[in-house]
Amino acid sequence: MEFSPLTAVSPVDGRYRKAAEPLSPYFSEYALIRYRVRVEVAYLIALSNAKLNGFQAFLPRQCELLESIFLHFGIADANRIKELESITNHDVKAVEYFLREKLDQLGLSDWIPWIHFALTSQDINNTALPLSLRDAFLEQYLPKLQELIQELKQMAIDWQTLPMLARTHGQPASPTTLGKELYVFVERLQGQLALLQQVPFSAKFGGATGNFNAHAVAFPNVDWPAFADRFIRTLGLVRTRITTQIEPYDNLAAFCDGIKRINTIFIDLVRDLWTYISLNYFHQKIREKEVGSSTMPHKVNPIDFENAEGNFGIANAILEHLAAKLPISRLQRDLTDSTVTRNIGVPLAHTLIGFASLNKGLGKLIVNRSAIEADLQKHWVVIAEGIQTVLRREGIADAYEKLKELTRTNDTITPEIVGSFVGTLDVPEKVKMELLAITPFTYTGIVEF
């Protein structure tokens, strides 16, 4: 069967291809191969600069030729490496043989023995992966996340002073404002993003079991750990200095946990927005020919928020496995990390799909002020807290009990009932006026952000 978005097994490459496609240059099989080539070429140039005996340093023009291998790396190059892999049955060795062919073509055959010099496959893989992850984070994930945070922040500012009934345990509670409730999520997201940005993108570079055995036996007078530190820094990564054959993935696990926490905050947000829509606090913009239900013509379903919730949930399930599994490896290395890390792009793809759905949903929201105001008007009972607190200030010992009796012996609290109650209180007239000024529309506390 011909491959297309309609025949793809995963919705990431099928139904949601448009939202996930920006990650293809970072996490596809082609991308992994290209990043491996990039690391191998960068290492070869770094060796040239190390002034090793027998290694004639590259001239600037030769360095440009080498860098062109990955700068102009295309699908045909990746296919050639896959052909070589079908022979070697080893993906990284196939990259090495590909580079041998390229150096021959570029007239750099004398340097072929230095390709992949003294390295193990994981020196390449555990550098290529964090490099691709860092690039995807900075170029795709971060801008989209910041755009969403900014959009939420603007909505919060626009509705900062709009009074709204709060609900704790699903029950009417002291009023808040719509803007403040949205800003809760802005602050949470900003805080978790700040933590996420502190997690280093860590690489491993130390030979077969992390001890530079082959490097040291070939050139015992070279400070190879210092060389590796410098090399990894040139790629914008941080080297984990004491390792087995593989990077321990602790920082990658922390990265997954950070993304997961941000997704969890978004799940909390979309569930609240879904509920506000069900309360009629929001209308949704509709398109003339759009259908909400196949059988109920009146319906406009909050599908964007539901799609976002579902994709954030799938992303978190995979992120949970990555964070729990990757830091565990038998002895100096087993191969389970190899197949698992190939899936690192999948949860990020579902996350971006969630971002796109959430962004679409936010763009449809129209605040329904009349419904919000009507809900406040129906629930004058929520000012009981404020009244009893002022009475406590005035020294009324049983203030709480008075308000408890008032609110539980009346099915509905109205402005008139409140007025009658205040009239019976043995407090100065000034205090009575203060109490009568408390309404569900004014009792919103301090709303600053």
Descriptive overview:
The protein has 449 residues and is mainly α. It has three domains: 19-117, Orthogonal Bundle (Fumarase C, Chain B, domain 1); 130-203 and 247-368, Fumarase/aspartase (Central domain) (Fumarase C, Chain A, domain 2, Up-down Bundle), CATH 1.20.200; 379-436, Orthogonal Bundle (Ribonucleotide Reductase Protein R1, domain 1). It is 60% helix and 5% strand. It has helices at 17-20, 24-27, 29-49, 60-71, 75-88, 91-105, 121-158, 178-196, 213-218, 224-234, 250-278, 303-325, 336-341, 345-364, 369-378, 384-393, 399-408, 415-423, 429-436, and strands at residues 163-168, 171-177, 202-203, 238-239, 282-284, 365-367. Strands 1-2 form a two-stranded antiparallel sheet. It has a two-stranded parallel sheet with strand order 3-4. Strands 5-6 form a two-stranded antiparallel ribbon. Strand 1 (163-168) and strand 2 form a beta hairpin. The longest helix has 38 residues, at 121-158. It starts with 16 loop residues before the first helix and ends in a 13-residue tail after the last helix. The model has no long low-confidence stretch (mean pLDDT 95).
